[in-house]
Design goal:
Layout (H helix, E strand, L loop, with lengths): L3 H15 L6 E4 L12 H5 L4 E7 L2 E6 L3 E6 L5 E4 L8 E6 L4 E5 L6 E6 L7 H4 L12 H8 L6 H5 L10 H11 L12 H20 L41 E5 L2 E5 L6
Antiparallel strand pairs: 1-6, 2-3, 3-4, 4-8, 5-7, 6-7, 9-10
């Protein structure tokens, strides 16, 4: 599933071609993805100018000059294609400007498109309960200390809870915990202040590194320009079961299951 860096990369790729442009045509090639397209999507977006693009958690935001925002989620396999040379049977939403064509391609149709009044974005149900953005000023050691206080659940699973931190996914939580030297099975409420102080910059660093590298190529994710992200080649623990820890501490990366998901970590340097 595309995670925060993949969505951020997508948004930045779209912004370079779409921001400030007027949408001349909107085409729906089917009635729904994971749920139906908004009934007024074509009417609202046709003729509107894209004033800005942004991201909230794992959602992309396309702000329109008509006071509405189109919110898209890429689901398991969704991606935007810019000026596709050939049509794809999975191009379900097409946007056109005077200069470019944008196709939302989603083979598995687990993605979604919503239309919300821009002034009401924070109250939209999917956003209302979200925690702070990991790349914003709201993610601090003090916030984590308060949010995790008394929790007996593992730190790994707590960091995946969107009301604690918005947008973190399995890959980058595993990577950040390794960078911070925190064992993923440790009770969240027992993670120390110094550990939390290391964890916040570790989260920021691993996300920024992945965004810089264009995201991670997992299954069929690709950037809007068709290029594949290559952060996967830099993973320190994710997917490296049985390999030596990159800290050269003699540790061997292990994989365990937590909450139905795999977790990779070094049993020697993560405590």
């Amino acid at each position: 599933m595309p995670e925060l860096p993949e969505v951020e990369t997508t948004v930045r790729g779209l912004a370079a071609f779409l921001e400030g442009e007027r949408i001349t045509r909107v085409t729906l090639n089917r009635a729904d993805l994971r749920r139906p397209f908004p009934a007024d999507l074509v009417q609202v977006m046709t003729g509107a100018r894209v004033s800005a693009l942004g991201r909230r958690a794992k959602y992309g935001l396309m702000h329109l000059d008509r006071g509405s925002t189109m919110i898209f989620h890429l689901g398991m396999s969704g991606r935007w294609r810019i000026d596709p040379e050939t049509p794809d049977t999975h191009d379900h939403l097409l946007l056109e400007t005077a200069s470019h064509r944008f196709a939302l391609c989603d083979p598995r149709r687990f993605g979604s498109v919503d239309l919300v009044e821009t002034d009401a974005l924070d109250a939209w149900p999917q956003f209302a309960a979200l925690g702070p953005e990991p790349l914003g000023p709201g993610l601090t050691a003090a916030h984590l200390k308060t949010a995790l206080s008394g929790k007996t659940q593992s730190i790994k699973l707590c960091l995946l809870e969107q009301r604690i931190v918005a947008g973190l996914g399995n890959i980058y939580v595993c990577e950040a915990l390794w960078r911070a030297g925190i064992r993923p099975t440790k009770q969240a409420g027992k993670v120390t202040g110094p550990q939390l102080a290391r964890l916040v910059p570790a989260i920021v660093a691993v996300l920024e590194a992945s965004i810089r590298d264009g995201g991670s190529t997992l299954r069929d994710y690709a950037r809007p320009d068709g290029e594949l992200g290559y952060f996967a080649s830099s993973f320190d623990v994710y997917g490296r079961e049985g390999q030596a820890c990159r800290r050269d501490d003699g540790g061997v990366i292990q994989r365990i299951a937590q909450g139905g998901r795999s977790t990779w970590f070094c049993p020697l340097c993560q405590r």
